User: Fold these one by one.
Assistant:
Number 1:
Amino acid sequence: MAWLDTRLLTVLTFFPLAWGVVGLMLPSGKDGKAVKAWSLVGTLLTFWISWILLGKFNGGTADFQFTENLPWIPGLGINYNLGVDGLSIWLIMLTTFLMPIVVLGAFTAVEERVKEFFFLLLALETGMLGAFVTLDAFLFYVFWEFMLIPMYFLIGIWGGKDRIYAAMKFFIYTMVGSLLMLVALFYLMHQHQLQFGSYSAAITDLYKLKLAGDGWFSVQGLLFLAFALAFAIKVPLFPLHTWLPDAHVQAPTAGSVVLAGVLLKMGGYGFLRFAFPLFPQAVAQYQMVFMALGAIAIVYGAWVAMVQPDIKKLVAYSSVSHMGYVVIGLFSLNTVGVTGSIYQMLNHGISTGALFLLVGMIYERRHTREISDFGGITKVMPLFAVAFLIVTLSSVALPGTNGFIGEFLILLGTWKTSQWTAVVAGTGVIFGAVYMLWMFQRVMFGPLKNPENEKLKDLSLREALVLLPLLVMAVWMGIKPNLFFNKMDASVAAFLERSVVKSAANDQAPSAPSQKAAPVPGASAKSKTSKI
Amino acid sequence: MLKLIPLFPLLGFLVNGLWYALIQSRPGAKKAGSTVTGGLASLAILGSFIVSVKVFLQLRGMPEASRVIEETLFSWIQVGDLNVPMTLRVDVLSTLFTMVISGVGFLIHVYSIGYMSHDETPGKFFTYLNLFCFAMLMLVMGANLPILFLGWEGVGLCSYLLIGYWYTDDEKASAGKKAFIVNRIGDLGFLLGMFLIFTTFQTLDFVEIRAAFSNSPTGVLPAGVTFETLSAIGLLLFVGCMGKSAQIPLYVWLPDAMAGPTPVSALIHAATMVTSGIYLVARLNFLYSLAPTASVVVAGVGAFTAFMAATIAITQRDIKKVLAYSTVSQLGYMFLACGVGGYVAGVFHVITHAFFKALMFLGAGSVIHGMHEEQDIMKMGGLRSKMPQTFLVFLIGWLAISGLPPFSGFFSKDEILWLSFASMKGSKVLWAMGAMTAVMTAFYMSRLFFLTFMGKPRTHEAEHAHESPFVMTGPLWVLAILSAIGGFMGIPPVISEVFGAHDINWLAHWLNPVVPHHVELNPGTTHAMEWALMGLSVLGALVGIFVAKGLYRDLAKAESLKQKFAGVHNILTNKWYVDALYDAVIVRPLVNFSKFLWRGFDVLVIDGFVNGLGRLSAWTGNAARVMQTGSVQTYAIMALLGLLITVGYLVYGLA
């Protein structure tokens, strides 16, 4: 199986798509049972392949591993170039972990065009994995855009009443951002030609570019803004978030879970892989702007979530709030904050994914998501209540759950960089409890006054199986975060090396140490990981 | 061995919890009774108590300076320069807390078997109760601040779940939510305080933080640390204490928390959880004693809370509400002690209060049980003969909290009052507030006692009240004995000298390695003064008792007094209008503003802009479409025009 080692990422990435294509040829049969089972097996196998990857992944190095490199458009230096490091490994695992859950969760929800639905889910998985494993900026762009298509159809075909508006809004919002990113990318490839004599779209090559970085609208500043716009829309960062509530509310449950669970992480990952290491000086320049926006997103998202009458919209706005933490953690530019951010991305995938699944489960039963239609559900759905409670606690970052580790590290990292941002962002700890517990009370507690709710059935075995892995992870990640950090530490250190030291050394490439490159004392550059 | 202490209740939680959630909660499934589930939970916590005592004995056998046992379970969080191992540590301070938590906890578990016998879901109740004990034990055994915080929020969760235990009642569910959210406000302060500690000392471990002080180059402050930083840390952490230990302005959740079952009020909202704040301050005494501003605030807030809560307690009619405000008031005492430097006195009062307040809550529970869920003391009366056991134990609790010698409350409260007067950080004002509170305490407790047990039954329920079973009265007697004699662990020298013993204050000596008992006193304080103040406070207590006795023997007289001071009475029954104020100033404006943000900003401004862009491009497209008419003549004219412009430009433009 030696070829597998050298082609592991290709296999992992394209396996779901290939499996899905075969699935299209299966007989539809009665309510598409065969296709559902086929897709579940496919996502489970993908998860198994990613386990092999994780098992062989070496956390001790920041180098890219399992690299593959084949020429694609040699004249422009565009290659089929893949690899993973500690920044992407857990996001890959998150994707492959969530997909079987999403597929199993959608068994009863989808009744029409079953085949197409599951095919699109599998195609989407390939798109997401591709974006995480690629080391070529152009290829990244291709995967980035490729993801939009299945999601567009998932919302537009299987969505709710206003699905067309929501799908268009989602599509156009994202496109606007990514087109500017494409222009910026061409500029970078061109710069590589000017500085090194050949075109290249390889990320590692682009890291070496020297770009003027002084001032708000320097070359770095403008390029950074172009990239940051694409990523900030995806995160989504206030005030670019308004596509999210619409998309979530209209999307089918499976779409919402993938959207919140993985697609939003593309934004954070983009910052990690591109915007920060490419434009360190611009990052330093814009640091406080983004920290402020992140802190506003936390509070704003929480406040607006609080007054939503629709549970799904509430969860959508809670995402805006939670992803605000990710942004301030990244821009804190220290080990603790950045590690916390990456961890928070995983947490958010788990807890918000679970929340959307839970909302979907009661929606399937009652065909409403209005909070006021519920009340006292605990009485008739005790097991559902337990699951909902655990997820709620994870969402409000109770110690002992994953959410706490993420928020604690992010706030501590932020505190080191900007105490006031930490204070403002910290109020999210309070408001998070307000909107979640208030919603929980109105749905689960109180008298069971709506007669339509009296006959609600508790979780089925399938639903319990869907939720169980998420609940286990929510607690496990709160108790043993080090298992995750171990594989990230080296890459986070290297990331900070690129994104911080370089800016202190005034536009010198890290490979060519500069004479005037005295690291600024007290800058967060000191926070290299001290691994034992 | 240490890990066994929290492990037992954790296992109890898992067994009872899985059993309940997976089997008993199924529709149509038979629910297990309180005997089995409660018996299991009680055994778990009994295990903790036995191990706690063994650990205590082990510590006692060690030389004084090295009385610490530590156990690292695994590495919890390690990122960059942050290293948080999951380490349990029991020293002279935490061993007392583990014994009180598991000991009093065990008694309350046993009591609950009887109290919850008619409940529909005892399995769920004992699941939560065990989880609480686990979290509470982690809180006091954690070797660093994050573990303490794990317990801190864990007990908050259990408090939330148990206050809203009867969740079908919306008011009870709201009370639980309120408790959690108000505590979260405090927790933000705790978090920020923790961050400031980390950036100041580069560690979150208690021993290591303390080492920074003992290794200090100046002998006072660690290198690079200022008094201002210490005060900021002290104040931020104290915000956390205000939430958890119900101090002004965050005390509002505790009275509402009485919505939970009475054993919960006894265990969580009197004996253990609410004293976490005092534990934290006592644990960090070395820091607080160098943070003068923080100490002043702690003492001031404590004294004012003690005073204000006592005034409210006077007018409450609900037996549990009286006890709740009394708890707030007593917690204020404990902070007053810590604020003036009397950390040992604060811990002392934590312990005695755990005995007598748990006793009174459980006694009240016994009364409520016997009165068929009636909680209004105006509808009671004459229970002395109906519930003789409860009456007797309540009598002891009443004497203890009123501060009459030789009951436990006398010793601890008197030490606090003395230090608030005599300590360098104390003052006459603090003492006066404390002393007035003492008088009021004796008064409202006597009111409660007389209205409940003395006189004649005032209602049918009171007439037919019945005594509780032994499973409930048994624990009451144990607590009654502890309330009676618990004070002897901290006899002040001024008293023991009379009997010829120089210094037999066991508690102060025991705690000394971690919590120094030495308090800097004002120059010129004498034993005579101490005796005088002691006499004064006993006298005050007696006055409070006799006024209450006179007043509430004849309800008509009390009624006329109430009429006379209707204004004051109104303010007090409405709890100084604090809840209403918070609602009007914070809660409603926030909700309205959020609605405005959503509909006004999100939908109108941002989406208005976004959709406007969409419309703009649609409009541009439409406008451009006009040009494409399909008529050949139009195109020909266009082409001609274009040609003319180009030629014109080439001919004249370039020239």
Number 2:
Amino acid sequence: MDTRPLETADNPAGLRRIAIDPLSRVEGHGKVTLLLDDDNRVRQARLHIVEFRGFEKFIEGRPYWEVPVMVQRLCGICPVSHHLAASKALDRVAGGWPVPPAADRIRRLMHYGQIVQSHALHFFHLASPDLLFGFDAGVDQRNIVGVAAAFPDAARQGVMLRKFGQEVIRITSGKRIHGTGSIPGGMNRAVDPAERDALRAELPQVLAWAQDAVSLARRLHESLPARYADFADIPAAMMSLVGRDGAMELYDGVLRLRESDGRIAVDGFDDQRYRELIAEAVKPWTYMKFPYRRDLGVDDGWYRVGPLARVQNCDFIPTPRAEEARQTFVAAHGGRPVHAVLATHWARMIELLHGVETVAALLDDALITGGPLKAEGPRQRSGIGIIEAPRGTLIHEYEVGDDDLVTRCNLIVSTTHNNQAMNEAVRAVALRYLDGETITEGLLNHIEVAVRAYDPCLSCATHALGQMPLAVSVRAADGRVLDHVLRNSTGELLRDGPAHDAEAAQ
Amino acid sequence: MSGVDPTFDLDGQPVALQPGDTILTAAARAGLDIPHLCWSEEVSGSASCRLCTVLADGRPVAACVTPAVAGQKVDCRTASLATQRLRLLQMLFVEGNHFCPGCEKSGNCVLQVQAERAGMTDLNFEVLNPERPVDASHPDVLFEPNRCILCQLCVRASDEIDGKRVFAIGGHGIATRLLIDSPSGRLGDSALSVDDRSAHICPVGALLPKRVGFAVPIGQRRFDTEDTRG
């Protein structure tokens, strides 16, 4: 099914516009616009990111040691991912890479705590209402309060799993949200043994909950109504970090790209050379950039990141319970690559279980309670840090002047990698479920369900400052275009061209 | 009366005083806090910030430079003074760019803790959003003028402790700023050393030794309490 033409309608004039604005139960602000003709046929469908953050710009001019804390403010859900990606990049700048083993373990502990809390938040609070009640259930029920009323045990487990992850973050960074633990070259704190022991005591229960969560996600996936069997099933290449041995690796590894048919396209790729692998494109109707594989170009080079990609990109998961769950996932799909977006929830809970198991192992590691915490070495002028955030691959890159101020910053966040994949999902669902139908709230929620499966963090993902193409049209009351100005991605202003189709969908 | 130390009254409590005491030094010795930003026992008083304004026998004075007088009645914790202190702090916040979440001084910052103690929950005034370029020219010390509150502690420390006179205050009104004594006006060309006291005395995050950043973990910072310990 070729969904590509739906990005831009041939002739937007006269089409009826429907906007899902704002998207609900996602992080940040975004909207979906649909253009329909007189027969309710979908002619254009787009996911727009309508907020603007510009973090890349205001990091410039700041001293580099400030950055790992400052960039956390990109987000309140996965600040740890930005904290650690920036730290890993600036470890290089400070000459402190690799960090000492104790600092490495404590950072990993923080990161896997983050995976647990973020995945629990998304599955239980944001996604489960759709899965438990149905995509077109009443809006009064399709929310976390509805879940708490109808499925109190599941709701409570979600809250408690998240709390556990937040506590792991607190004992490693000083605060549940926006702590300061990681610094260029290492850590500023070790784990207090008493706090470690308190978390250890909770582990048997938390592990049981995490296994229940995998079972629940699997059960919900396998019991989806038949009409959702091919829901947003869009073949896509998959990218993630993996360990050098092919293991699932979320903190530090090498890049692997797998084609949609399962063949490995790129493997063992040094994360410091990521720019040889991918580039970013901009489009005039959204603040979110479009990364693509350089070898395939803008149109064909898009790919998917996040749990669905990671669970299939790795050769194995290095913790026993999660590996068993992964094998079950693979077997349930006959060993074939899985691209149905709803399977992401199942994959996400497998990762949550892996996160809890990894936290358990790290809490048993004596290194986390002390030892040298900071490495130092010759200052470098630039650094790249890549990490697997809950939502997918997260890239931070900095250049730092001799005066210690950041001169350039580039962030490619997980949601940005998934931009085209999410747009493809929107178009596929619009064609499959909405085309020619009388539009209802329940049908529109189908589109949100597809976007939501990616757990997009839209507030993290909007940084196209300075490269943002912009189209402005002035129209008379009868719809005639009186003036049209297009600023292209190099900042050049173009006039008297045809009215940009983007204008119609804003 | 012989054998009895002279005292003055601070908010109803007797405070012993010694020759040469200001109201603030006598109160500090007695363990009584008078809010202040620009005072340090290491250098002379300057009455720059006026946060320590008290009523001495009903007259508003800066406690950091006003001699303590036996028998005097001093009011510090009045509702009116609390409001004035709050407004003063709010003005300091809006005149600069004070973003605690990303500032390495957070938890060790006197401005931050005074604002918290004053119950500051908003800015009250329109923010001025000044654009002041960071001076990172010194190899070991960073000057972040967006956070400077013109308290003059660095000026006095450089004059009185370091003997270098690296800093001065120049300009008038809202354009008042910290000047650096060097041919270029930049820190890197000045006589400042990171070992100087003036490089460490800043109560906010304006003058900072480089590459320290967030080295002190949450829970061990100067003003951490049970609430901020995480």
